[in-house]
Structure formats: structure tokens, C-alpha cells
What we know:
- This protein has helices at residues 3-23, 29-50, 55-106, 109-115, 119-149, 154-170, 172-181, 188-227, 232-241, 248-265, 269-295, 303-344, 347-350, 357-364.
- It is mostly helical.
- It folds into 2 domains: 25-182, no CATH class; 183-346.
- It is 85% helix and 0% strand.
- The longest helix is centred in the N-terminal third of the chain and has 52 residues, at 55-106.
Amino acid sequence: MTLRRQVQFWLVSLVVLCLFLYVFSGVLLPFVAGMAVAYLLDPVCDRLEKLGMARMWATLTILFGFILILVLFFILLLPLLGNQLALFLERFPDLVRKLQDLLSQYFPADLASVAGIKPEDLQSSMSDLIGQGASFVGKLAQSLWSGGQALLSILSLFVITPVVAFYLLLDWDRMVARIDSWLPRDHLEEIRGLAREMDEAVAGFVRGQVSVCVILGSFYAISLALVGLNFGLLIGMAAGLVSFIPFVGAGLGLILSVGVALVQFWPEWPWIIAVAAVFGVGQFLEGNILQPKLVGDSTGLHPVTLMFALFAFGYLFGFVGMLVAVPAAAMIGVLARFALRQYLASPVYRGTRPAAAGTDEHVSE
């Protein structure tokens, strides 16, 4: 097969995959979630196999343990988080009003005159910003709800996902071997090498970043609760879960928690500083300990690339697109680096013209 035929084949395959995701995005959520769970737990299953446990029993043990953790989360934490969320939404207008009054009362008049900012303008801008944020959250919630409810209810999601994860986890090694047998023999080692790079990139982000998000969410939630911040558990968990987007999770958590702390603790500055210090410590732990140890540089994804992938895939394929955005971006990054290496080693980059004689003599001298 010529290079042109190969390029045409893979372009057609990519178009078919994109069309498939676009057409069936409404029903893919439990299957994509099940695939993600299987991929996340496969190394644990392989380790249990090495210890002498059969694949079936290892799969059942891991899956039941995973489901048990989820059930405990929904029984113990979800009601508490739900109550805090309902109370936060109920008190949100009052919190905004008190924060605006506080800023208007203590906003320096001389600084306002120098900067040309009036407290009324600040209040108006803040109201507009909060309104836009509330609108964005509402649209996002509606998108998540409609995406998950297109043909399957939330209940079916929790029923189908464990079943899909069980069968994929049980047959994972056989599926990998079968796909490997379909690879073109002439480029077998190159494709295997690219597949290993993709696996390292995706695993480094998915498995590592999930651990980082869980650890940060637990740290933020417990620390803010110990400080005594209202809705601290909710804000901390939300900030940790959004930490897979660089600086966004910590930034949103810091803004929300400091805003609530100003209304709750003012004028007791030590408590407000303590709330801000929680996120400072969290960022130190994430940047110096968690990210290097659990994620590392295996993904090769720039933060801007990551954010663009989340927005682009979410816009094209909805919530399912956001789930596959990071793995897809990591794979595309591996392919892009491979194409760049091929280009740098090709005559297109190095050129085919022989060096001038004068240049060679000059170099030899």
C-alpha cells in the first residue's frame, strides 16, 4: 500500500470515528465510563494475577471493591454535599449582597478616585460577572443532564457502567492481543512503539490525575471544614475535582472560599488568611509532590492545549466529548511528536542539495 493510500485510509477512519461519536454521543456515556473504569483498574487486576489469583476472581474482587467505595461515597458524603449545595444556592444571593456591601463599605475612596473606579461600578460589574457565571453553570448542568438522559436515565448509567467495566476488564488482555494481531506487519514495531507512548501518556494523566484530584479534594474539604468555613466541604471537593484543569480548580476554590470567608469572618483577618493559606499549601503540594510523583511529564500536554481540548471536544460531542478529550489529546500529541520526528529526519527538512565546495573547505580549515 502506497503512502497516499495509507493516509487516505487513516483519514477516512478518523472521519468515521468522529461521525460515530457525534451521532451516538447521547448513548455513549455509560460505555465510555465503563471503558475508563476498566482502563483505570487493569493494572491492579494484572498485579493480582501475578500474585496467583485467576482473572475472573481478580476482576470480581476489584470491581466489587470499586463499587463498594462508590456506594459508601453516595451513602455517606453525597447527602451531605447535596444539602450543602442546596443551602449554598439558597443563600448565594444573600452572600453576594453582603459581599458587595462589604466591598462598598471598605473600598478605599482615594484608590477609587485614582483608578477611576466607583463602588457602584464595582457592584454592577460584580453582579454582571456573577450573573454570567450562574448562566454558565446553569447551561453546563442542563448539558450534563440532557447528555446523560438522552436515551438512558441516571439509574441505567449506574447499572450499565459496572457491567461494561466487568466485561472489558475481564477480556482486556485478550482484546489487546486481538487488536495487535490486526496491525499491519510492515509497520508493526513502529505502531507498537506509538501505542506504548500513548498508553504512558494517557495512563500518566488518567490514573495519576485521578489520584491527584482525590487527594486535593480531600485535603481542601477537610482543611476548610476544620477552619470552620461555611460550605467548606462542598467548595473543597469541587476545587479538587476540577483540579485536572491547571490552575482552574484552585483558582475557583480560592475565589469562592475567600468570598464566603469575608462574609462569614470579617473583620477577623486570621481566619480569612487561614482559608487562603489552605489553597496555598494545596498548590505547593500539587506542584512539588503530587504532580511530579503521580503524573510526571509523561502526558506532554501543555495546560493551554489541555483546556482547548476540553472546550473543543465538549463543544463537538457534549459531556462524552469532555470525557474523551484528555486521552484523545494525549494520543494526538504522541502522533504529532512522531510526525515531527519523521519530518526532522526527512529530506524535506534536511534538504537534498549538496553542500557548496567552498563551504566544505572553509569548514575543514
